[in-house]
Design goal:
By secondary structure, the protein is of the alpha/beta class. The protein has 10 helices and 17 strands. The strands form 3 sheets. Strands 16-15-14-13-7-12-11-8-17 form a 9-stranded mixed sheet. Strands 3-2-1-4-5-6 form a 6-stranded parallel sheet, sandwiched between helices. Strands 9-10 form a two-stranded antiparallel sheet. The structure holds nicotinamide-adenine-dinucleotide.
Length: about 375
């Protein structure tokens, strides 16, 4: 019997437009899906580039105005892979037009924006999801299963870092294509909403809600030329942020992110220490989960380096043969597959409501960066 179709309208053809297009292309080839994804339309303002993108990925049509995309009656799902300032208006218009919606992170530039988005999806009652893709790297999914099984026992510590170095040059401009992450109006914040949002989403998934935070933020380069105005303008985003957090389960955490860690391009690491054991993970070695089990006895006890590539590891039975790896792109494939197979009632996280919780934490972090106080994060 022919499968039901899921007709996708993608907004944005940049970095994430590519990962999502790849995900919807690969997911039905590797996973048994209840719907067949169809790349129906891609939307971006530059018609020529959008047409090139459509032809490369197999989209059947192109739109240059997202409002026209959202109104089309041959589209079921709007997927937002555009900069952060676009998320709110597109998502709300999409659900008001009866579409399902997937949105890139952070959901809103502020928690106030994302609370309106949550209200809109809940009122419309449509499936919704935010692309916090790291949850679906098999080693991270396995960490979640181990924690839920109680292998770590009571959790005492959570530690996460996300380090980059691409904005160190003082003559790097801000704003416009490729550099919108430095423009507060577009991005909402700097490393806090861009990078720490990932760390916070993973942390709350693995270790529960965060009650309060205290942060320090820093803008190292205070003025940059704006590519759209040609003028030197103040830089209003946080270049670096470090914060302490108290989780609802009583554990303590440290989080750090910067775009000024020379030599680091995209180093996301995390560590969790519990009563019975510890886990460590590193994006540069993403298929490995390091595990210390205090129950191991004798002189050979120590950290185990688990290569999460066996057929009984999360998602891995759908890929090659045991021992062979997958990578970053496949976390998006897993997310697309889980979203599609959650459509008929099962649901799939993180929803808009989950991602709004992350925005509440990032808002509290940024506020604490200004006040120097502990701030409530939920
Ligand atoms: N999940 C992740 O790991 C991850 C990684 C990178 C980026 N992101 C998020 O994805 C989103 C996009 O980031 P990116 O790196 O792909 O950015 P990008 O700059 O590479 O691409 C942005 C795209 O949006 C399009 N766009 C901008 N304004 C538009 C408009 N008015 N109408 C239609 N299209 C428009 C641009 O043409 C471009 O195609 C951001 O929210 C970002 O935070 C998430």
């Amino acid at each position: 019997m022919a499968k039901k179709k899921l007709r996708i309208g993608m907004v944005g053809y940049g970095f994430m437009g590519r990962t999502h297009s790849n995900a919807f292309t690969q997911a039905p080839k590797f996973f048994n899906l209840e719907y067949e994804p169809q790349l129906t339309a891609v939307c971006a303002r530059n018609q020529v580039r959008a047409e090139e993108f459509a032809s490369n990925w197999g989209y059947s049509s192109v739109e240059s105005d997202w409002r026209a995309l959202v109104e089309r009656d041959d589209i079921d799902l709007i997927d937002i892979a555009a900069p952060n300032n676009m998320h709110h208006d597109i998502a709300i218009a999409a659900v008001q037009a009866g579409k399902m919606v997937m949105c890139e992170k952070p959901l809103g530039r502020t928690a106030a924006e994302s609370s309106e988005m949550v209200a809109a999806v809940e009122k419309a009652g449509v499936p919704n999801m935010v692309w916090y893709n790291y949850r679906r790297i098999p080693a991270i999914s396995m960490a979640k299963a181990m924690i839920d099984e109680g292998k770590l026992g009571r959790i005492y510590h959570y530690r996460a870092k996300f380090l980059q170095d691409w904005t160190i040059a003082t003559d790097l401009p801000q704003g416009g294509e490729g550099l919108w992450r430095l423009d507060k109006d577009v991005a909402g914040s700097g490393v806090t909403g861009d990078l720490l949002a990932h760390c916070i989403d993973t942390a709350m998934w693995l270790n529960g809600g965060i009650d309060s935070v205290t942060a320090m933020t820093k803008t190292f380069v205070k003025e940059r030329e704006h590519t759209l105005t040609g003028k030197v303008e103040p830089v209003e985003i946080d270049d670096a942020c470090a914060f302490l957090a108290r989780f609802g389960n009583g554990s303590l955490a440290t989080f750090e992110s910067t775009r000024y860690a020379r030599g680091h391009k995209a180093l996301y690491t995390l560590e969790i220490n519990g009563e019975h054991g510890s886990l460590e993970w590193d994006l540069h070695d993403l298929q490995r989960l390091e595990y210390f089990d205090h129950g191991d006895q004798g002189t050979t006890r120590g950290w185990r380096s688990i290569h999460v590539t066996d057929g009984d590891h999360p998602y891995m039975g759908n890929w090659w043969v045991p021992g062979l790896g997958i990578g970053y792109a496949e976390s998006f494939v897993h997310q697309a597959a889980d979203f599609i197979n959650g459509l008929d009632g099962k649901g799939a996280a993180p929803t808009f409501a989950d991602a709004h919780q992350t925005d509440l934490v990032t808002d509290a972090v940024l506020k604490s960066g200004e006040t120097g106080l502990w701030e409530a994060a939920n």
